[in-house]
Amino acid sequence: MSKAKYSIIPRPQKYNVLDGTYTITPETAILCSPDFIKAGKYISNFLKTKKDANNGQIKIAKDESLRAEAYHLKIKPDGVTISASDENGAFYGVVTLKIMIMQSKTSNGVAVVNCSEIYDYPKFSYRGEMMDEARHFYGVDAVKRALDEMAMLKLNKFHWHLCDDQGYRIESEVFPLLNEIASKRKYELLGGAEILSKIPGLQKGGNEYFHYYKKEEIREIVEYAKNLCIDIIPEIDLPGHTVAMLAAYPNLSCMKENYEVFCENGITKDILCAGQEETYEFVEKLLTEVAELFPYKYFHMGGDEAIKGHKIWENDCSACQAKMKELGFENGKELQVYFNNRVNDILKKLGKTSVEWNDGIGNNTDKDIVGHYWLFRSPSWIKAENNKRKFIVSTCPSLYFDYSYAICPLKKVYNFDVVKSGFINEKNVLGIEFESWSEWIDTYDAWEFAVYPRIFAFAEVAWTEDKFKNYKDFYKRLNFFKVYMKSKNINYSRIEKKIWFKVKNKSVFHLGNRGAEYKYNECLKAKELKG
Ligand SMILES: [Zn+2]
């Protein structure tokens, strides 16, 4: 009788069940190649077993023939071998082993694991999660908790959105007012801008909100992520989404007025002045200070939603108008392309590869800037840009987990396809990333509700070849992870499908505790507890 496969998400590319079992005991030793210390530590911490320099029944070894991030896992009656050509591959091998052990028969520290053989590798090299702590701040422990679960799903890029109109959240020794002024806003809860302001539950309120990460906390998180094979990509959004910076340093603006850190959703009209050299000098010093904290390749420079500011550049600011005339530009968009290309020059000098949101990209945007697609553009635009540059794809709303489950249900995430999104040239797609903007996600608990279980579907889209994907099979495997999430007290959503709420005085858009879905989920959980 052949044994059932263990439930693994993301689904491995090739997984065969073999005859026999292997028994792991407290005496089982781990023999790990010196290149794969992270993998060795991760599994020995989980098994609480010993590491052994000379012998071991669990061997983690180097095999140069395997591709990047791939692993080969073999469980036989006499032991386990994991081979990989790089650190990430070895790490993912032990993550899979851990998930199998969690589902095996265990008693008194002894686990009996079914023999198996797995060949596995990721579809995309960039498998990203974005957390927005500019709008709401969750703190060191929450970020570490999120990173732990990313590792379990073989996600490898943590895009950390730490500054926006509603706050600047990185300690700055070069520009201390970024903390004294830009890290602080009048109200904790944001109001709904424009048409949204009529929706009950979207009014600003609460106490003063003052948060930022100390450099030593950021270093601690970077180190923590490194041990989980996760790169951190910081985002300093430029030139838009910067009114918190302007509140601290109004000289960087076009109109030099008094600005306040924004307490609403949406975007402000005031952005950095692109017509004066003082702005570029500030940006260079700031990026130099921030880049030092993040020893990774990619750096996100935002570039999105600056369109209201373009009007000020075009109509009100003499410095911007003079710059446009000097360079022969006809509109603010062309000036923005020039601005972001200069930011790209700064980041290149710092050894970074820039990432920019797609709406900031124009005809003359540098080809070495990685595009980050989120906003619907015409198929012809996507096709042309797709052939020109590398892309990260986060199509809204399929990969926007700040949208309600009614708009972005679990199955919609699972069925997401970059090619159907218009990116026919998949070679230029580095990968995918989900977003979780936090205007309406005001606590980490609400963040978990927004992200889990959609993150499981996302991880499988990012990792597993299309030909091996199957929603029914995925949904069956998810059962194990629901038990797992309960055991770790993760506040996952019991709502997976499209339910529109006709609840008065509650917004369906709000995923925090003022939202209808969140409240309904609390009821479902209470019922579960009752049994
Ligand atoms: Zn200006």
CATH topology (level 3) name of the largest domain: TIM Barrel
State the oligomer. Answer: single chain
List cofactors, ions and other ligands.
zinc ion
| Domain module count | 2
Query: What percentage of the residues does DSSP assign to strands (E)?
Result: 15-25%
Largest sheet: 8 strands, mixed
Mean pLDDT: 94
**Structural Rg:** 24 Å
Q: Would you state the CATH class of the largest domain? A: Alpha Beta
- Terminal residue distance: 35 Å
SS element count, helices: 16
Estimate the helix proportion, in percent.
25-40%
> Low-confidence stretches at least 5 residues in length (pLDDT < 50)?
none
Q: Tell me the name of the CATH homologous superfamily of the largest domain.
A: Glycosidases
Number of strands: 20
What is the structural class?
alpha/beta
Q: Per the principal axes of the C-alpha atoms, what is the gross shape?
A: globular
Name of the CATH architecture of the largest domain: Alpha-Beta Barrel
Write up this protein.
The chain is α/β, with parallel strands linked by helices and 531 residues long. The chain has 2 domains: 14-120, Chitobiase/beta-hexosaminidase domain 2-like (Chitobiase, domain 2, 2-Layer Sandwich); 126-526, TIM Barrel (Alpha-Beta Barrel). It has 16 helices and 20 strands. It has helices at 37-47, 87-102, 140-152, 177-180, 215-226, 243-248, 277-291, 307-315, 318-327, 332-349, 379-388, 410-414, 444-451, 454-463, 471-487, 516-530, and strands at residues 14-24, 29-32, 50-51, 58-62, 71-76, 79-84, 105-107, 110-120, 126-132, 157-161, 163-164, 167-168, 184-185, 209-210, 231-235, 298-300, 353-357, 370-373, 391-393, 429-434. Strands 1, 2, 3, 4, 5, 6, 7 and 8 form an 8-stranded mixed beta sheet that branches. An 8-stranded parallel beta sheet has the order 15-10-9-20-19-18-17-16, covered by helices on one side. A two-stranded antiparallel sheet has the order 11-12. A hairpin with a 2-residue loop joins strand 7 and strand 8. The model has no long low-confidence stretch (mean pLDDT 94). Zinc ion binds next to helix 9.
